[in-house]
Amino acid sequence: MIIGVVFVPAAPLMLPDIDVEHLLDDVRDAAVELIREFEPDAQRVILIGSTPQAQWHLQGGIGSSRGLGGSAEYAVGSSADQLPQSLTIGAAMLEAAAWDTDVIALGVSAESTYPERARLAGEVVAQAAGAPTLLLVVGDGSATRTEKAPGYIQPDALAFDEQVAAALGAADVDAILGIDQATADRLWCQGLPAWQVAASAVPAAQGVLVLQGAPFGVNYLLAAWRP
Q1: Domain 2-226 fold
Q2: Where are the domains of the chain?
Q3: How confident is the model at residue 97 (pLDDT cuts 50, 70, 90)?
Q4: What are the two backbone dihedrals, phi and then psi, of residue 213, each rounded to the nearest 5 degrees?
Q5: pTM score, whole prediction
Q6: Distance between CA atoms of 86 and 197, rounded to whole angstroms?
């Protein structure tokens, strides 16, 4: 049974060994605190992130910051599977929260179709059936908000991000499922595949938007849902 969903940013600076200047300490600390709120009731975590390829890591895995300029490894579960960036960030958040329960992970490809995401959501629900489960969903909004953003500037990025923030804060499943992948791609929003899987898996919930900010032209969002 899914007892909650926590949405956290996918920024490399969420990794403490990358954020040597402590630029995202407040975001990281808030994310860890939010995860800990669910810890007393959850016996399992399903970590979901947008990744180049769709893949389950049913025994967890190990993520590394080496490709990002760091030198740390972040492990969840018992597997030696190599975790991609988004799942590595999720693993780091769970490590910081001292999470010691069962963890499995799912990568969702941006190339996946809506029916494929709905199918993955069904698999998430099935994986959560045996124990109270928290979904930890890693993803960013647009990366085109300013001239210095990774994707330069798109005039509709701010409106898009406000739409996403409102949907996550209100747990508006229909709004999240209604976001077009082509628009997300144009605005360099990498969180949509994972968000849509979570939304399909949790069709009704109470939501709260804890934090929204774009210090580097990338929209970072922190939110929680409670079914």
Answers
A1: Protocatechuate 4,5-dioxygenase; Chain B (3.40.830)
A2: 2-226
A3: very high
A4: -165, 160
A5: 0.96
A6: 15
